């Protein structure tokens, strides 16, 4: 299907698109997020179509007919007010539909259905991709949460709050000819961008920011500190509680966010460091019985789709055996 040629009303009557809007599955979510990521110019058409489907669908989640969508779209284009459509005993005011679309065009934001949550969570061992109202794509790492500001699209800036780890691919947005700022808030600092890609990790009582491309401004939650401007490849660690700031440049920053592709790229990572990563990602307790093993290092790429595959990979690389019992992982030296 060549969706690039679709207009909003075409999307709204496409069965596959409607199934994603009304009854999303991991497969449809993956398809449309990937498609939007590759075709960001269609984000507004997609959102207009979503709103038409949500307005015209029945309470049971039945997809609207092409006739209903055509009437809504015609009313929007003609600017009609006060006209009512009755669809499966549900009244749809074209004035309201037009207002929604006009506001979407003006502000480029989502208008959430009543009761829709503005916080996204991931469980241990789970990652999730979230498409924000402006077309920004966020990949949440395991055991993380992302809160989106209320009234998104009616503000002069875009704001989110992060706990855990996430990779952001921020879309550029303008209002009145001015670039709209995108801010990620953590307990230690604020990350301010206009359009760029970067990783933020708030684990271990500090915030770490790694810039992939573009330009980032960091504002520490400390009035005495100056703003930090990052360039691609820069890594910044800051802990407000410990008052510790560390800045360095990485020749290749991609290993820092390889987790988003379900793998870890390990460069001289000690077994002790890997144990911490396992605990943070999978929610288990890891013990290393022999202290001499803690300094063993790993270089290479290991899978993280599930913990069993990861542990098997580590056993094949290091002279260790790993056992599991409930939520406890024990690492021992391999007998000679």
- State the end-to-end CA separation: 59 Å
Q: Order the strands across the largest sheet as they lie in space.
A: 3-6-7-11-12-15-16
Indicate the structural class. Answer: alpha+beta
The top level CATH class name of the largest domain: Mainly Beta
**Whole-number count of domains:** 3
The whole-number mean of residue pLDDT values reads: 79
Number of helical segments? 8
| Named CATH architecture of the largest domain | Sandwich
Report the β-strand fraction as a percent range.
25-35%
The profile of the biggest β sheet is:
7 strands, mixed
Overall strand count: 23
Please give the share of residues in helix: 25-40%
Which residues sit in consecutive blocks of at least 5 with pLDDT less than 50?
75-117
Oligomer: single chain
Task: Return Rg in Å.
Answer: 24 Å
How would you describe the shape? globular
Domain FecR protein: 119-216
Keywords: Membrane, Transmembrane, Transmembrane helix
Pfam family, one: FecR_C
Protein name: Anti-sigma factor
Name a few traits of the molecule.
Jelly Rolls, single chain, 336 residues, alpha+beta, Phage tail protein beta-alpha-beta fold, globular
Question: What can you see in these coordinates?
Answer:
Residues 265-331 form the Protein FecR C-terminal domain. It comes from Dyadobacter endophyticus. Keywords: Membrane, Transmembrane, Transmembrane helix. Residues 119-216 form the FecR protein domain. The chain is an alpha+beta fold and 336 residues long. It folds into 3 domains: 3-56, no CATH class; 91-255, Sandwich (Jelly Rolls); 263-333, 3-Layer(bab) Sandwich (Phage tail protein beta-alpha-beta fold), CATH 3.55.50. It is built from 8 helices and 23 strands. A 7-stranded mixed sheet has the order 3-6-7-11-12-15-16, with no helix packed on it. β1 (84-87) and β2 form a beta hairpin. α4 packs antiparallel against α6 (94-107). Residues 75-117 have low confidence and may be disordered.
């Amino acid at each position: 299907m060549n969706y690039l040629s679709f207009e909003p009303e075409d999307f709204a009557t496409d069965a596959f698109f409607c199934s994603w809007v009304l009854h999303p599955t991991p497969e449809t979510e993956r398809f449309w997020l990937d498609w939007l990521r590759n075709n960001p110019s269609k984000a507004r058409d997609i959102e207009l179509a979503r709103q038409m489907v949500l307005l015209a669908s029945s309470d049971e989640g039945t997809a609207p007919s092409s006739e209903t969508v055509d009437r809504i779209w015609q009313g929007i284009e003609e600017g009609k007010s006060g006209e009512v459509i009755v669809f499966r005993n549900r009244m749809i005011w074209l004035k309201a539909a037009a207002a929604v679309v006009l506001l979407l065009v003006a502000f480029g934001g989502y208008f959430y259905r009543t009761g829709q949550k503005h916080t996204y969570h991931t469980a241990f061992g789970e990652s999730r991709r979230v498409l924000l109202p402006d077309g920004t794509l966020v990949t949440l790492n395991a055991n993380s949460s992302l809160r989106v500001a209320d009234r998104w699209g009616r503000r002069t800036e875009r704001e989110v709050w992060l706990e855990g780890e996430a990779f952001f691919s921020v879309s550029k947005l303008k209002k009145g000819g001015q670039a709209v700022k995108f801010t990620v808030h953590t307990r230690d600092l604020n990350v301010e961008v206009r359009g760029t890609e970067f990783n933020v990790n708030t684990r271990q009582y500090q915030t770490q920011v790694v810039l992939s491309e573009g330009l980032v401004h960091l504002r520490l939650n400390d009035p005495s500190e100056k703003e930090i401007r990052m360039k691609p490849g820069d890594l910044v660690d800051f802990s407000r509680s410990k008052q510790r700031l560390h800045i360095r440049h990485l020749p290749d920053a991609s290993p820092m966010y390889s987790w988003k592709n379900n793998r870890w790229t390990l460069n001289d990572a000690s077994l002790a460091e890997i144990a911490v990563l396992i605990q943070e990602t999978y929610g288990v307790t890891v013990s290393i019985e022999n202290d001499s093993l803690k300094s063993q290092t790993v270089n290479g790429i290991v899978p993280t789709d599930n913990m069993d595959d990861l542990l098997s990979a580590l056993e094949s690389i290091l002279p260790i055996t790993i056992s599991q019992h409930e939520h406890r992982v024990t690492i021992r030296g391999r007998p000679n």
